[in-house]
Every structure is written in structure tokens, then in C-alpha cells.
Specification:
- The chain is of the alpha/beta class and 244 residues long.
- 36% of the residues lie in helices and 18% in strands.
- The protein has one domain: Rossmann fold.
- The radius of gyration is 20 Å and the shape is globular.
- The N and C termini lie far apart (67 Å).
């Protein structure tokens, strides 16, 4: 085979091979990504709706999906309260995965203007979401948490995760957090940093604090290729009735 033919053949091979699709990318999903969600799985259907919206960073889809499906394996029903919610995708996935939850709140200091675009795309695919999600712009501690709620939060920055956990435990509500931005200057390491890195020490202290508050806890991880900040802490009051 001549050099020219070899070069053309190699070029053809490179063009037909699928490009690497990083689930941790902050690039927006758009209609150009529709072919990456070709099936009839729930994730594929959600992915196509997100692509049509054209406003959500790719990693947010996978972070919310991996968190929601793990939480729903443990908790059914209840109002969903998504704190530091951003586009509110986690709250909507919780409703899609379990229709027995009557409604959801998506709370953030600033609600992205494109949150409405994403919600519209999801409602077009799941009309039962209409009228069940309320966006709230303001501090997360302005929202009243009720005992029957399920409080969720993905990557509430730094000490905001501790605020979320505190709000949930005061109300005796179920809670799940995927922490990030572990700030050693404001978060408690429990003097454990001599044995483990600061971020892990902070999350261990959070888990033990939740258990000491009378909660049954679950410590899980979402896939690391989505985010290195992948530790998921889930808790429910030990004396609460089991989910139906």
C-alpha cells in the first residue's frame, strides 16, 4: 500500500471512530448531541429533552441523574426540596422517577434564566410535571422544611452543604447531599486531617454528625468520571416510617 493510500485510509478510520464523550464536560448539551441518547431508557429520554433545551452543562445531567436514582432507591414520596438547585433538574428527575411526590421546590440564590427553558422541554416530554415545580430565588434558609420532605442538593458549595444538612435535621426530613468545594477554613475536619485529606475528613464529620442526630445514614459514590467530588451522603431519621 502506498504512502498516499495509507494516509487516506488512516484519515477515513479517524473520521468514523466515535469521539470521546466526557460526562464531566461543562459544555452544553444541544441537538447536536441527540445521537448520543438513541435508546428508550429513561436516561436517554431525559437526555434528548435536555438536548432540545440546549442550555444545560453536560455534567449537570449526569450528576443529577446518578444522584436521583440512588436516592429514589431509598426514598419514595414526599415533597422534593432541591436546595442550591441551579436549573432544578434534580428536583424534576425526582418527580419523574417517583410520581407519588406531589410537588417540588427548586431553591437557589439566583435562578438561571434558562431554568424555564429546561423545565418547558421536560414538561413537553412529561406533561405530568406541569404545575408541580416551583422555582424560588433567595437564600436556602428562607424555605420552611417539613418533616415529610425529601431534601436534596448537588454540589452546594463549601459550608452551604452544612446549611442544607442542618435545615433537614432540624425538620427531621430525609436528606441527600453531594458535597463539593470543601473549604477547610469554614468546614469542620474533626481534627482528622492527619489521617486523611481535608475533603474526606469534612465529609466524614458530616456523616457522623448526621448519625449523631439520630439519622440512619448511607454513604455512596457516583461515578468518578462525572466528578471527582462524588461522595453522596444520604440520611433519614431512624424513627421515621419506611418509604412505601
Amino acid at each position: 500500500m502506498t504512502r498516499g493510500v495509507t494516509a487516506r485510509f488512516a484519515w477515513c478510520e479517524r473520521t468514523v471512530l466515535p469521539l470521546h464523550f466526557s460526562r464531566s464536560s461543562r459544555g452544553r448539551l444541544t441537538d447536536r448531541d441527540l445521537a448520543r441518547f438513541p435508546g428508550d431508557t429513561l436516561l436517554d429520554r431525559v437526555g434528548r429533552a435536555v438536548c432540545h433545551a440546549g442550555c444545560l452543562p453536560r455534567k449537570e445531567l449526569y450528576e443529577a441523574w446518578e444522584t436521583a436514582r440512588r436516592v429514589r432507591r431509598l426514598f419514595r414520596g414526599g415533597r422534593i426540596v432541591d436546595l442550591a438547585a441551579g436549573h432544578g433538574l434534580l428536583a424534576q428527575l425526582m418527580l419523574i422517577l417517583d410520581d407519588t411526590s406531589p410537588c417540588a421546590l427548586a431553591v437557589d440564590a439566583v435562578v438561571p434564566p434558562s431554568a424555564a427553558t429546561l423545565h418547558k422541554a421536560l414538561v413537553e416530554r412529561w406533561p405530568r410535571l406541569a404545575g408541580r415545580l416551583t422555582f424560588v430565588a433567595g437564600p436556602v434558609d428562607r424555605v420552611e422544611i417539613l418533616p415529610g420532605d425529601t431534601v436534596v442538593s448537588v454540589h452546594a458549595c463549601g459550608a452551604l452543604t452544612d446549611v442544607v444538612l442542618q435545615l433537614a435535621t432540624i425538620a427531621r426530613a430525609r436528606v441527600a447531599v453531594l458535597p463539593c468545594c470543601h473549604d477547610v477554613d469554614v468546614c469542620d475536619t474533626g481534627a482528622l486531617s492527619g489521617w486523611m485529606d481535608h475533603a474526606l475528613a469534612i465529609d466524614v464529620v458530616r456523616a457522623r454528625r448526621l448519625a449523631n442526630a439520630g439519622y440512619h445514614i448511607w454513604t455512596q459514590r457516583i461515578p468518578q468520571d462525572i466528578t471527582p467530588k462524588n461522595r453522596l451522603l444520604i440520611g433519614a431519621p431512624a424513627d421515621a416510617p419506611a418509604s412505601p
